[in-house]
């Protein structure tokens, strides 16, 4: 299976968002990754439901919605209604994670769990079979364009071992600082999905950059 690529629109040109989405539609991207930030769980505010709805009007690729917010449970249905195909919540924001995962699935969406750089993948062992994807944060969440955290490789290998041992089919998604230099090592460690924001949208040819990531 080729690597799946999920360009993050956090790094796109917001003033020309429709054309950016149309570019992604024509590219070899597999998902459109949308970071939702509330200024509380992470020290930044991005966009909310109206922007997701607007993206969904033009998108031909599934929307991979990453909720970096407190109390995500109260917004799950709203984001599902707005067009999300995948909804990922943060382990650190969900005291009743199993219930949250089940609620996402009951809405007909795939359920993802994101973990911050300081969180151990061991915390997911007991629930891994219920999760469709794990977003391993390879930067501290909140801002785009950050430097990749090198410990991520070992973390991905440890997570892959848990998935294999559990007989789960959970996909591993990497979010933060992904580029053509570290992507091959991430794939070798067990990554299935690469989120790329600045590396795609700040490149001279975003479609070509997406294709190059997929060819790894």
UniProtKB/TrEMBL annotation:
Gene3D superfamilies in UniProt: Aldolase class I
Catalyses which reaction(s): D-ribulose 5-phosphate = D-xylulose 5-phosphate
Presence of the UniProt keyword Cell membrane in the record: no
Cofactor binding note from Swiss-Prot or TrEMBL: Binds 1 divalent metal cation per subunit.
PANTHER family given in the database record: RIBULOSE-5-PHOSPHATE-3-EPIMERASE (PTHR11749)
Catalytic center residues: 35 (proton acceptor), 175 (proton donor)
Designated name of the protein: Ribulose-phosphate 3-epimerase
Source organism per UniProt: Echinicola arenosa
Cofactor(s) required, per the database record: a divalent metal cation; Fe(2+); Zn(2+); Mn(2+)
């Amino acid at each position: 299976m080729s690597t799946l690529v999920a360009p993050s629109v956090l790094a796109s040109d917001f003033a020309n968002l429709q054309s950016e989405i149309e570019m992604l539609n024509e590219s070899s991207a597999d998902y459109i990754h949308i970071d939702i930030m509330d200024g509380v769980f992470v020290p930044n505010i991005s966009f909310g439901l109206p922007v997701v709805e607007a993206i969904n009007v033009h998108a031909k690729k599934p929307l991979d919605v990453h909720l970096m917010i407190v109390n995500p449970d109260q917004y799950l249905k709203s984001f599902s209604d707005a067009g999300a195909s995948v909804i990922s919540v943060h382990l650190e924001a969900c005291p009743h994670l199993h219930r949250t995962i089940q609620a996402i699935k009951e809405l007909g969406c795939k359920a993802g769990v994101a973990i911050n750089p300081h969180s151990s993948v061991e915390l997911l062992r007991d629930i891994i079979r219920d999760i469709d994807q794990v977003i391993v944060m390879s930067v501290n969440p909140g801002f785009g364009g950050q430097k990749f955290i090198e410990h991520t490789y070992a973390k991905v290998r440890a997570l892959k071992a848990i998935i294999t041992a559990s007989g789960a089919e959970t996909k591993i998604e990497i979010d933060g600082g992904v580029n053509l230099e570290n992507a091959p090592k991430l794939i070798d460690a067990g990554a299935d999905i690469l989120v790329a924001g600045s590396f795609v949208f700040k490149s001279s040819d975003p479609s070509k950059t997406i294709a190059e990531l997929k060819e790894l």
